[in-house]
Amino acid sequence: MSHQDNRPDAALLYRWDPRLRIVALLLLAFAFSSIKELHAIPAITALTLFFWVISGLPARRLWHRLRYPSLLIVLLAVTLPFAGGSTPLLNLGPLTMTQEGLESALLITARFYAILILALCFLGSTPVHQTIRAFQALGLPGIMADIALLMVRYLEVLAQDLQRMRRSMQVRGYQGRACSWKTIRTTALLTGNLLLRSYERADGVYKAMRVRGYGHKRPTRGGFSATMADKAAIAAVTVMAIGLTWFG
Amino acid sequence: MPPAVQFFNLDFSYPDKTDVLRDISLSISPGERVGLIGPNGAGKTTLFLLACGLLKPTSGEIRLLGQPVVKGGFNPDIALVFQRSDDQLFCPTVGEDVAFGPENQGLTSREVDLRVQEALTAVGGQHLSARPVHHLSEGEKRLVAIAGALALRPRIVIFDEPSAGLDIRGRRRLIPLLQQSAPTVLIASHDLELILETCTRVLLMDMGQIIADGLPRDIMSDEVLMTAHGQEKPHSLVPHQVAHRHTAA
Prior knowledge:
The structure holds 2 protein chains of 2 kinds. Chain A is mainly α. Chain A folds into 2 domains: 144 residues, no CATH class; 73 residues, no CATH class. Chain A is 68% helix and 4% strand. A two-stranded antiparallel sheet of chain A has the order 1-2. In chain A, a hairpin with a 2-residue loop joins strand 1 and strand 2. The longest helix of chain A has 31 residues. In chain B, strands 6-7-8-3-9-10 form a 6-stranded mixed β-sheet, with helices on both faces. A 4-stranded antiparallel β-sheet of chain B has the order 2-1-4-5, covered by helices on one side. By secondary structure, chain B is of the alpha/beta class. At the A-B interface, helix 6 and helix 7 of A face helix 2 and helix 3 of B.
């Protein structure tokens, strides 16, 4: 996942204060996960579509992100109607599709996609480092925020290291056939080497941070400020979430 | 005015390597631009880490501007530009990385912004402020790393192999920065021409000791001395009596 996948400034969702965006996401995710009635599905679908539209996230990119999680939910959606229940709908040989099973499958699938799409829209519209800072502003301990930021920063560097190492292996004839002892051993050596390099790099980074004063004073810069529109939006989302929880 | 940097009988050993530095005594005056040359493993980087308080000497003392250096302390009067820019650029964007040091100095937002602007302007990198760090070229990373150090408004700047990995253009952009970044500058480099061009004094180090200390031209012209300690005479000091390029017939 590219952590620079931020939406253009024109997208309405992107203009929302990142902290309030996170709070809204959590509220809606909680509300969506609490619905138990099928009649709430159109409401959560409509809300999800609304937020997707104002996020400006292209459909193609959204689908790309949904592909792998979909494998899991499709498996569940296909098997759940046959898993239990007392009202038979359809007999397929030894298997019986029940109304209760089908309803459960529909509910779980709808909730799953709604929450996942919301998360992709809400968080995918912000650079990762800004999201982490927003979490920090909401109370995430500073040290955890620093760890997350450093992880995000150095994942790219690690990926480049790995690519260089792989290329050097390829030019020396390594082909990496699956399920061979040599492949397993080489993969283990590669992993160990990356870990060692990461450790050395971490030591270097830590020294660089210390020499510029890390750990001496906690920086007091904020960087977020919520407008009246932001606050009105979170109030509206709160009402929606309460409504869904109550009536769903 | 006290000396900028002083080392008194400094010894240092790592747990797995002894005598990395042996009895180093040295004084650097404010305003000097000192080049450290020597083979790999001579102790140059270790000396820098000690000066910045990142390591503790086995014995001896270090003073910066008259004050003793305490291990683990933070002294914004001294800044270090690391050899590997990726080690130094750990924030997501250029602006945030350059702001890192001033924020730790407890400055207000306005002061931090001013320092960031100043530092990026000094290196010609104002246009990079919003750029993600991992999208920078090697030359740009080096400039941003220098900006990050300059943002502290240090009185001493240490550069560890500043021209390593840079192309010719990057190297040429670097030279005025090395000359003007701070009142006192220490530069460790294998790029002897760079040292000749930027430094007023040279220290030749080898096996943890200072072998020679003097004017760059005097030390680097001594071919016997240079060769004995894993160096060679810089090309610009070699008299051009014989054609030095072989062209295909």
